[in-house]
């Protein structure tokens, strides 16, 4: 009896009704149950039992999957039982049965409809003509190989261009040098304005005579010259940016300016460490968070804290990205400025789900 | 817990007040402000017990106007600061429930003893109920003081031999000397 489950009488896919009987009672083994006088429907997949009319209404009914039935036997006129592994049930047909229930069920169990897999419907769309006949793993491997080959070719082509550019760049710089010396010699022929303009072009092109390692015997000397170059090149930029630039920005700008003979991050870091000892106007500074920046010698944490504090006061409150867009600096730098300012007690934080904001330090300034 | 009528200090509407400040100098000011606000709030609302786990339902710790609330861990650390000055004490080990003494136990004790002396109740016995809920004490500051706090205050007096607690199951009373 426990093999029955409650189910919807709606037919599942590919299920067909085979026979219908009325006034049927269920027995749990030999024991009568309360399920009496109901409708019995035998389908290709299930045996359904329900109170009269319930099936028509689509109400829940009792269902026994046909696949669970191992044996059918007619007991006495009007009643027969289904033996299962552990138990069996009996169906009692009070009014007898009109259809050949036993025959139908036996046939149904032999055909085993529930095992028949209906092939999924193939869409009617005309199939696109297959271009690649290769299928399977070999096909996939080959297409991957082809892709790789194509990538290799583009890469090679790209690097050939780069090599050309590098070899040309040296000549270009030489030419630029020649032109600038000629301009110096022929002063008077061209106006002051034009000279300045030309020089600014040269500058934006890059550093005309980059410091390279080959030219120096010791690392120390190399770094010192590099430090000089960095300071000379970046001083103006850093001044424009409010006195501070992250080391990563500096790295990008230096290498952008050099164009070739690129510097490694280590070389730049080592050179920057020497900035202060060489008495140059820039210095390397590390925030407590570990962020390294190049900043003007004239700038110290106190003045940063002060100016940031004033900015916060003017705006009511600021987050790192707001400050970044106000000053045109990176968010990392803006954050460092705010944290420095906080360390100096110039502002205080509000850490909420809306993010980290900084407010004027009313705790210290708003004494009652 | 009904609404407590209180003039909120400016800090209450200042969002950073609800974030523990990392700068030590700033934090000292902030914690000081919190301490006095908590005591003031409890005094006004005559709150003797605060459950940190319910802090989000207490307007004191949850300012819905600016959508900020104080974290439970921060509340506990501020209450621990109050504990140092005898203005609060945790009731359970997990430090979730705190008794708040807007008068310290010493202050309560001397207040009660002052009342006893002025009424000439020395050498007489009063029930704890009389002392906290009786008609005679309606005008006193310690009117409606919970029994747990009252007992602790009286224990202070007991130590000075100014009273003796009688804590049997039936009658809880105290004899003053």
UniProtKB/TrEMBL annotation, chain A:
A GO CC term attached to the entry: ESCRT II complex
Pfam families: EAP30 (PF04157), Vps36_ESCRT-II (PF11605)
Annotated SUPFAM superfamilies: PH domain-like, Winged helix' DNA-binding domain
GO MF terms held by the record: phosphatidylinositol-3-phosphate binding; ubiquitin binding
Localization annotation: Cytoplasm; Endosome
Keyword Acetylation: no
Keywords carried by this UniProt record: Cytoplasm, Endosome, Protein transport, Transport
GO biological process: protein transport to vacuole involved in ubiquitin-dependent protein catabolic process via the multivesicular body sorting pathway
Residue span, GLUE N-terminal domain: 1-121
PANTHER family associated with the record: VACUOLAR PROTEIN-SORTING-ASSOCIATED PROTEIN 36
Purpose of the protein: Component of the ESCRT-II complex (endosomal sorting complex required for transport II), which is required for multivesicular body (MVB) formation and sorting of endosomal cargo proteins into MVBs.
Subunit structure: Component of the endosomal sorting complex required for transport II (ESCRT-II).
Family, similarity comment: Belongs to the VPS36 family.
Name the UniProt record assigns to this protein: Vacuolar protein-sorting-associated protein 36
Annotated source species: Rhynchophorus ferrugineus
The organism's taxonomic lineage, starting at the top: Eukaryota, Metazoa, Ecdysozoa, Arthropoda, Hexapoda
From TrEMBL, chain B:
Protein's name in the database: Vacuolar protein-sorting-associated protein 25
GO cellular component: ESCRT II complex
Keyword terms of this UniProt record: Protein transport, Transport
Family stated for the protein in its record: Belongs to the VPS25 family.
Keyword Transport assigned: yes
Transmembrane segments: none
Gene3D superfamilies per UniProt: Winged helix' DNA-binding domain. Chain C. Domain 1, Winged helix-like DNA-binding domain superfamily/Winged helix DNA-binding domain
Any GO molecular function: protein homodimerization activity
GO BP terms in the entry: macroautophagy; protein transport to vacuole involved in ubiquitin-dependent protein catabolic process via the multivesicular body sorting pathway
Matches recorded under SUPFAM superfamilies: Winged helix' DNA-binding domain
One Pfam family in the UniProt entry: ESCRT-II
Domain of life: Eukaryota
Organism of provenance: Rhynchophorus ferrugineus
């Amino acid at each position: 009896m426990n093999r029955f489950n409650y189910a919807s009488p709606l037919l599942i896919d590919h299920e067909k009704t085979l026979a219908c009987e009325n006034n049927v009672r269920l027995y749990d083994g030999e024991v009568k149950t309360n399920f009496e006088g109901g409708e019995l429907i035998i389908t290709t997949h299930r045996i359904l039992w329900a109170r009269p009319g319930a099936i028509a209404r689509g109400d829940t009914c009792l269902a026994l999957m046909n696949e669970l039935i191992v044996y059918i036997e007619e007991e006495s006129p009007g009643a027969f039982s289904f033996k299962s592994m552990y138990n069996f049930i009996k169906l009692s047909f009070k009014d007898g049965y009109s259809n050949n229930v036993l025959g139908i069920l036996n046939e149904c169990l032999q055909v085993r409809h529930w095992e028949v897999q209906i092939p999924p419907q193939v869409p009617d769309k005309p199939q696109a003509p297959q271009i690649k006949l290769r299928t399977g793993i070999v096909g996939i491997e080959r297409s991957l190989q082809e892709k790789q080959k194509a990538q290799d070719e583009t890469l090679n082509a790209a690097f050939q261009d780069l090599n050309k550019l590098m070899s040309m760049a040296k000549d270009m710089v030489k030419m630029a040098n020649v032109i600038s010396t000629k301009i110096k010699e022929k002063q008077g022929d061209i106006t002051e304005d034009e000279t300045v303009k030309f020089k600014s072009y040269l500058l934006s092109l890059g550093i005309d005579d980059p410091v390279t390692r080959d030219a120096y015997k010791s690392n120390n000397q190399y770094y010192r010259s590099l430090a000089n170059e960095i300071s000379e090149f970046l001083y103006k930029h850093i001044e424009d940016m409010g006195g501070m630039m992250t080391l990563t920005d500096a790295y990008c700008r230096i290498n952008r300016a050099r164009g070739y003979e690129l510097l490694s991050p280590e070389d730049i870091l080592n050179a920057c460490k020497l900035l202060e000892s060489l008495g140059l106007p820039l210095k390397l500074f590390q925030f407590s968070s570990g962020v390294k920046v190049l900043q003007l010698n004239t700038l110290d944490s106190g003045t940063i804290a002060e100016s940031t504090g004033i900015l916060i006061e003017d705006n009511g409150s600021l987050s790192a990205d707001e400050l970044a867009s106000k000053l045109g600096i990176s968010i990392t730098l803006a954050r460092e400025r705010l944290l420095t300012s906080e360390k100096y007690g110039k502002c205080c934080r509000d850490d909420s789900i809306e993010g980290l904001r900084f407010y004027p330090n009313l705790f210290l300034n708003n004494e009652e | 817990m009904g609404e407590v009528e209180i003039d909120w200090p400016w800090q209450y509407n200042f969002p950073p007040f609800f974030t523990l400040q990392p700068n030590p100098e700033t934090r000292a000011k902030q914690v000081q402000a919190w301490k006095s606000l908590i005591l003031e709030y409890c005094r006004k609302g005559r709150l003797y017990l605060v459950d940190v786990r319910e802090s989000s339902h207490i307007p004191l710790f949850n300012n819905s106007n600016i959508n900020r609330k104080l974290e439970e861990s921060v509340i506990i650390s501020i209450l621990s600061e109050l504990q140092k000055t005898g203005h609060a004490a945790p009731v359970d080990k997990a430090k979730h429930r705190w008794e708040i003494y807007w008068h310290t136990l010493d202050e309560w004790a001397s207040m009660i003893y002052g009342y006893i002396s002025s009424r000439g109740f020395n050498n007489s016995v009063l029930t704890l109920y009389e002392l906290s809920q009786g008609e005679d004490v309606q005008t006193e500051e310690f009117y409606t003081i919970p029994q747990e706090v009252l007992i602790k205050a009286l224990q202070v007096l007991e130590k000075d031999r100014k009273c003796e607690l009688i804590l049997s199951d039936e009658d809880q009373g105290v004899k003053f000397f």
